[in-house]
Amino acid sequence: MSADNDAIAFYHRYAGKAMPGQSGDSCHLLAWHSLDVAAVGWHLLAPERPLTQQLALRLGIETEPLRRLLVFLLGLHDLGKFSRAFQEVLKLTLEGMAKPLGKPYLERHDRLGVLLWDAWWRQWRREGVLHWPPDDQTPARKLLEPMASLMAPFFGHHGRPVVTGRLNVEAFYGSDAQVDDVTAARDFIADWAKVVEPHWPVELLLDEEWLDVFRTLSWTIAGWATLSDWLGSHREYFPYCERAMSLSEYWSRALGQAESVLQATGFAASPDPVPYESLAQWFSADITPTPLQQKAEAISLEAGPQLFILEDVTGAGKTEAACILAQRLLAAGHGEGLYFALPTMATSNAMYARLGDLHYRFYSAESRPSFVLAHGARQLNEDFERAVMAAQPGDNDYAAIDASASTQCSRWLADSNKKALLADVGVGTIDQALMGLLPFRHQSLRLLGLARKVLIVDEVHAFDHYMQTLLHQLLAHHARQGGSAILLTATLPFAMRQALVNAWQQGLGYESAALSSTDYPLLTHSGQGAHRETPLATRPEVMRRVEIGWLTQEEDAIAEVSRGIEAGDCIVWVRNTVDDAIRAWQAIRDIHSDPERCLLFHARFAMVDRRRIESDVIERFGKTSTPSIRRGQVLITTQVFQESLDCDADRMISDIAPIDLLIQRAGRLQRHQRGERQPPRLLVLAPEWEESPKADWLSRAHRGTQAVYQDTSLIWLTQRVLRELGAIEMPDAARELIERVYACSIDEIPEALEQARLERSGMNKMVGSMATHNTLDLQDGYRLNEDFDQWQEERDVGTRLSDESSVNVVLLKRQDDSLVLWADGEHHADMLSQCRLRESQVRKLAELPERDAESWEALQERYKALRFTRPWLPEEDDDCRYDSQWGVELARSEQKR
To answer: Which CDD domains match (predicted)?
Structure first.
């Protein structure tokens, strides 16, 4: 602080951040932090940025006036810190700073900011403090709702919208002979308005249609405000400063510092896309595109947001076709980046492996786009990771109820699933995108990450009804935000395709016309109120017929595996539950002459072992595997195999499952050309066929399958159609196979199974309603409904209704007298030591002994991401254990995929 305390502005007596007792400046003035954050936002909203242009286009405001208004409001985000109650929490004893008045800090500073603003903005408007147009005579009452909507994204910068309730200003703001809190805030706003000169679109604020558009965009604006706050809180680039100066002088300094932090973290500029030329541009080889890829190259793009649904057989090159469309969309200005959304972490790994460095081909060499996989086990661009997650001096949390921005930033980015949404090219699970619809703290950052991205969603047929409902809402919002989407699937029921197009058109504000085509393969293209359905040809080499055989006992399946081993084939057996897979694997190992040629692969492994097993599976069953390597190999696996790995088997057995999953599994049977082999034949382990089954028909012999697929009518219909057709024939029978299972009438279902179908139908309606109930009303804007607070911390909502909440468990082991990570010595050891379990499973694990608390805290300090995991010492757990060959073994067997 300046020695001449009487001469400094009132607002320079307030700190925004503080660490008393540290060397150098022990606090950062509130005015300076406010301008730091605003400077970051200023650069992020540069007029040439596509996001700025999209916001300006939708809001009908030129880019520069829009930038000035939003950045001015962003500078007010911490207005609540002018509260003497907040200042007392910082415990500063610097001369000249606002002195304690005994005000209790019982509310978060973001809420106190709303309180102050709501109480005083009308008077400040009259006094000219806000730089309001002097000739405007609009009654304040007409501006109440518009101003509340306008300010909500800025005061809600800590991850959720806030309201004041029945708080009163006097309880938290005060004055003494030296300084008055409200006057200090007023003076700051007045001087800040002179620096940035906001443009208030008064006429637009009074237009209800304009307000509706703003409310829709307010989620993205809230994400921009949060990101600006996080980056503006980076002490390496914005060091503490106690010195008083004019706002204009500090503003120049803050703009330079903001430019540096954006350069360091990869947010300085959007990557520069290059036009698509040909597949040879990507692979440096003369490759003949598939019919689907040829259509992706030739189809006419529309002017606005557009949806593509690609339905084709396995091997048709859907991923590459999606990349072709994505690159064309990027080059045409329809987006700045990509997000590949996959059903599971395993599919994320597979997509990462398929893309390799392909993402570099979308952009110019100078762009250096960041590419983040959905978890930290492998990341292509570790510079981005280091920059965003760089260690920095931490700001003290203000109170138990109020974490600092740097703390919240570290916590959010510790989960690289979330970080993938902010990268130029992200590969992650669909859950990370869907969570943008739900009242999770900082969900607006997810929506910001998706805004102006091409969203690519793979295997959309695999979503249950709850997830489908969420996906429909995500697509509608993405369309409203101006984004485009590409959906990939091998098989999709007609009704599901229609629902996806309906959701997209609804987001654009159009009534959707009915689809009509039953062709397969098919490319559906939906744009501004219109759609096209384009039938596609199929390459002869991917047209196939897989004969179906039937087994009724596990012993029969084991015998078939044994015969395949003797014949020198490689065999895959896909089971429906982890426990069934472990049991089968143990039985096969007992009869195999070379047990090392038996692999077990499921989702309950620590990442270090899962990565190793995936690598082994690719080596033994992948496209480049040799006959000598493949001979006698056996893989016992679960759905992670069909959903992820580009492998093929000479022989395959599968537990009975709904038809679309069996089609997927059959797609891995003799997938690649390997010379002469027996015709492909899928053996299905299922109950004895019964024309008139009893209600327990499935559970009697296949309890695990019944637990996973509770609608037994789907299983029975699948068995019926496959028995009648005798084969899975692609593409000719694709529509018949799918529609005869998913679109049949209740009259075709045996009476004993009708209840299961009716229960599923009722459950679908219920979960659809539940999904709608759980999701935020994105059209209503970034605001809090005081009658029903969806943001209550105790509310348990998720992206998958059928799954419990899951927990990241980190495996530890003892070394001498301290704890080390399970994958100690490995790069990314903290991530590689983790596995993900359901909450009910985690409750079975032994708690960490109290004597290890200090050692565990030391690990958490070294590896920041561990702060949000559950520690486990498998070697000292009497009931549960971990083995690198079969994964987590729980105290009591559980049926689970």
So the answer is: Cas3''_I
Q: What is the average pLDDT across 568-592? A: 95
For residue 404, tell me if it sits in a domain. Answer: no
Using CB atoms within 10 Å of the CB of residue 792, give its burial: 0 to 12 exposed, 13 to 18 middle, 19+ buried: exposed
Residue 554 structural domain: 544-730
Is 408 a member of any domain?
no
249-278 exposure pattern, b = at least 16 Cβ within 10 A, e = fewer: ebbebbbebbbebbebbbbeebbebbebee
Q: Encoding tokens for residue 726?
A: 């005798």
Any domain includes 81: yes
Q: Tokens representing 367?
A: 């762009």
Instruction: Give the Cα separation of 440 and 838 in Å (integer).
Output: 19
Residues 613, 486, single domain; the answer is no
Whole-angstrom distance, CA of residue 574 vs CA of residue 685: 10
Is residue 158 very low, low, confident or very high in pLDDT (cuts 50, 70, 90)? confident
Q: What is this structure's pTM?
A: 0.86
- For residues 410 and 401, give the distance between their C-alpha atoms in angstroms, rounded to a whole number: 17
Taking the C-alpha atoms of residue 615 and residue 89, their distance in angstroms, rounded to an integer, is 53
517/589 same-domain check: no
pLDDT of residue 848: 95
176 with 306, same domain?
no
Q: Which of 535, 552, 573 is the last residue of a domain?
A: 535
> Is 638 part of a structural domain of the chain?
yes
Q: How far is CA 374 from CA 93, 340, 378, 886, in A?
A: 45, 10, 9, 24
Before 493, cis peptide (omega within 30)?
A: no
Which of 681, 715, 730 represents a domain boundary (last residue)? 730
Q: By three-state DSSP, how is residue 635 classified? A: strand
**CATH number of the domain within which 479 lies:** 3.40.50.300
Cβ atoms 834, 863 nearer than 8 A: no
DSSP state of 849: P
Same-domain status, 514 and 578:
no
| Tally of structural domains, the chain | 4
Using the predicted structure, report yes or no on whether residue 301 has a pLDDT greater than 90.
yes
Measured CA distances, 73 to 66, 140, 441 (Å): 11, 18, 21
Q: Is the pLDDT of residue 383 over 60?
A: no
Q: Are residues 583 and 715 in the same domain?
A: yes
CATH number of the domain to which 159 belongs: 1.10.3210.30
> Higher confidence at residue 106 or residue 717?
717
d(CA 780, CA 805): 28
Is 235 in the same domain as 312? no
CA neighbor of 293 nearest in space, from 68, 537, 128, 477 = 537
Question: Between vectors from CA 662 to CA 594 and to CA 491, what angle results, nearest 5°?
Answer: 135
Distance linking the first and last C-alpha atoms of the chain: 62
Angle between helix axes 181-196 and 247-265 (nearest 10 degrees) is: 70
Which helix (H) or strand (E) segment holds residue 713: the answer is helix 712-725
194 and 322 share one domain: no
823 contacts: CB under 8 Å, gap ≥ 6: 606, 607, 608, 829, 832, 833
Spatial neighbors of 676 by CB under 8 A, at least 6 apart, are none
Cβ contacts of 726 within 8 Å, gap of 6 or more: 547, 548
Is there a contact between 215 and 782 (Cβ–Cβ < 8 Å)? yes
Q: Are 531 and 553 contained in the same domain?
A: no
Which tens digit of pLDDT belongs to each residue from 10-36?
A: 999 999 988 877 778 889 999 999 999
Least confident of 113-127, 341-355, 734-748, 852-866: 341-355
C-alpha span between 444 and 452 (Å, rounded)? 14
Q: What is the CA radius of gyration of the chain?
A: 30
